[in-house]
Specification:
mainly beta; SH3 type barrels; 7 strands; 34% strand; globular
Protein backbone atom coordinates (compact mmCIF):
# COMPACT_ATOMS: atom_id res chain seq x y z
CA UNK A 1 0.00 0.00 0.00
CA UNK A 2 1.33 3.46 -0.88
CA UNK A 3 0.57 6.20 1.66
CA UNK A 4 0.34 9.81 0.47
CA UNK A 5 -0.12 12.38 3.22
CA UNK A 6 -1.93 15.35 1.65
CA UNK A 7 -1.55 17.74 4.57
CA UNK A 8 -1.18 17.71 8.31
CA UNK A 9 -4.28 19.71 9.13
CA UNK A 10 -6.54 17.87 11.49
CA UNK A 11 -10.31 17.76 10.99
CA UNK A 12 -13.14 16.49 13.13
CA UNK A 13 -14.07 12.87 12.44
CA UNK A 14 -17.69 13.80 11.64
CA UNK A 15 -16.45 15.95 8.71
CA UNK A 16 -15.35 12.81 6.82
CA UNK A 17 -17.56 10.88 4.40
CA UNK A 18 -17.85 7.09 4.23
CA UNK A 19 -14.82 5.75 2.33
CA UNK A 20 -12.52 8.60 3.38
CA UNK A 21 -9.09 7.56 4.65
CA UNK A 22 -7.24 9.16 7.54
CA UNK A 23 -4.49 8.87 10.12
CA UNK A 24 -5.26 8.94 13.82
CA UNK A 25 -2.20 10.45 15.52
CA UNK A 26 -2.88 8.20 18.54
CA UNK A 27 -2.04 5.18 16.36
CA UNK A 28 0.90 6.58 14.33
CA UNK A 29 1.39 7.45 10.68
CA UNK A 30 1.77 3.85 9.50
CA UNK A 31 -1.82 3.00 10.49
CA UNK A 32 -4.41 4.13 7.95
CA UNK A 33 -8.13 4.03 8.72
CA UNK A 34 -11.12 4.21 6.39
CA UNK A 35 -14.52 5.51 7.48
CA UNK A 36 -17.11 2.71 7.21
CA UNK A 37 -20.84 2.44 7.56
CA UNK A 38 -22.46 -0.88 8.48
CA UNK A 39 -24.85 -2.39 5.97
CA UNK A 40 -28.49 -2.67 7.01
CA UNK A 41 -27.97 -6.26 8.24
CA UNK A 42 -25.05 -5.35 10.52
CA UNK A 43 -25.46 -3.72 13.91
CA UNK A 44 -22.32 -2.16 15.39
CA UNK A 45 -22.90 -1.00 18.94
CA UNK A 46 -20.42 -0.26 21.70
CA UNK A 47 -20.03 -2.40 24.80
CA UNK A 48 -21.95 -0.35 27.38
CA UNK A 49 -19.82 -1.85 30.16
CA UNK A 50 -16.88 0.04 28.65
CA UNK A 51 -18.34 3.21 27.07
CA UNK A 52 -21.55 5.21 26.87
CA UNK A 53 -24.00 4.02 24.20
CA UNK A 54 -23.84 7.37 22.36
CA UNK A 55 -20.06 7.89 22.61
CA UNK A 56 -19.41 7.07 18.94
CA UNK A 57 -20.89 8.87 15.94
CA UNK A 58 -19.16 6.60 13.43
CA UNK A 59 -16.67 3.85 12.81
CA UNK A 60 -13.48 3.23 10.87
CA UNK A 61 -11.57 0.13 9.82
CA UNK A 62 -7.80 -0.21 10.24
CA UNK A 63 -6.68 -1.06 6.70
CA UNK A 64 -3.68 -3.05 7.99
CA UNK A 65 -5.44 -5.49 10.31
CA UNK A 66 -9.20 -5.03 9.77
CA UNK A 67 -9.93 -3.83 13.31
CA UNK A 68 -12.99 -1.61 13.75
CA UNK A 69 -12.63 1.54 15.87
CA UNK A 70 -15.39 3.84 17.13
CA UNK A 71 -14.99 7.62 16.83
CA UNK A 72 -16.74 10.50 18.51
CA UNK A 73 -17.86 13.43 16.33
CA UNK A 74 -15.20 15.86 17.61
CA UNK A 75 -12.19 13.51 17.59
CA UNK A 76 -9.43 15.03 15.47
CA UNK A 77 -7.90 13.04 12.59
CA UNK A 78 -5.66 13.80 9.59
CA UNK A 79 -7.22 13.06 6.17
CA UNK A 80 -4.91 11.22 3.76
CA UNK A 81 -5.15 9.75 0.28
CA UNK A 82 -4.44 6.02 0.21
CA UNK A 83 -3.85 4.04 -2.98
CA UNK A 84 -4.44 0.32 -2.71
CA UNK A 85 -2.78 -1.89 -5.30
CA UNK A 86 -4.20 -5.40 -5.59
CA UNK A 87 -2.24 -8.08 -7.39
CA UNK A 88 -3.47 -11.49 -8.40
Amino acid sequence: MEILINDNREVKFNALMVGATFIDKNWGEDTIFMVVEPSIEVNITPDTDLVEVDEFCGYAVDLKNGGIMGYGPDEMVVPVKANIIATI
